[in-house]
Amino acid sequence: MKRASLNKSVLPVLLVGALALAGNLGAAGVEISQYREGRLLTCVPLVDRTFELSFVHSVSLTPVTDYYRLIESPAGDLKINQTAEVFLAHGQGLPSLVDEPDATSFELRNGQFILEMDRDIGRLIVRTDKRFKNRLHTGNSVINLNQWPDSGLMIAPVSNCQQ
């Protein structure tokens, strides 16, 4: 009988310890910070190491979605790699050639231009403006990048995203 009560009292301690350890492991993700000030705004965990940025293009006033993934370098560092850009209209600031740098394919599918690519991004700086509905999408959430004052935001990969 004492043995059963001992097990019941040990179990909650083990569970609390396991949950604390799991909370410290964190997932790979991206940190969003104010570019000029360097102030960290949030960290967004990425379940599958992919995310998208969507916005309304400032010239064509049409929706654009850029697709990214985090990849690990041979040294073990994470970096951002752009895999595609999907848009509706050609125009200033949008790809318009089959031989775009780092492009792997360029096609028109279901009324959308799709530029697939393998482009490493050194620093991902996003200039936000409420008029252009800047959003970061992950597998299970949408982050409104316009919740902060219009400015430049730096998006940087991290191996352990803790909130």
Distance between the termini: 43 Å
Radius of gyration: 21 Å
Residues in helix, %: 10-25%
The average pLDDT score comes to 82
Q: Give the overall shape, derived from the CA principal axes.
A: globular
| H-E string | HEEEEEEEEEEE
Short descriptors:
163 residues; seven-stranded antiparallel β-sheet; four-stranded antiparallel β-sheet; disordered N terminus
Report on the architecture of this protein:
With 163 residues, this protein is mainly beta. It has one domain (26-161). 15% of the residues lie in helices and 48% in strands. The chain is built from one helix and eleven strands, in the order H-E-E-E-E-E-E-E-E-E-E-E. It has one helix at residues 2-25, and strands at residues 27-34, 40-45, 50-56, 63-72, 78-87, 103-109, 112-121, 124-127, 135-137, 142-144, 152-161. Mean pLDDT is 82; it is low at 1-24.
Structure, briefly:
This protein has 163 residues and is mainly beta. The chain has 1 helix and 11 strands, in the order αβββββββββββ. The chain has one helix at 2-25; strands at residues 27-34, 40-45, 50-56, 63-72, 78-87, 103-109, 112-121, 124-127, 135-137, 142-144, 152-161.
How do the helices and strands line up, and which of them pair or pack?
Blueprint lengths: L1 H24 L1 E8 L5 E6 L4 E7 L6 E10 L5 E10 L15 E7 L2 E10 L2 E4 L7 E3 L4 E3 L7 E10 L2
Antiparallel strand pairs: 1-2, 1-11, 3-4, 3-9, 4-5, 5-7, 6-7, 8-11, 9-10
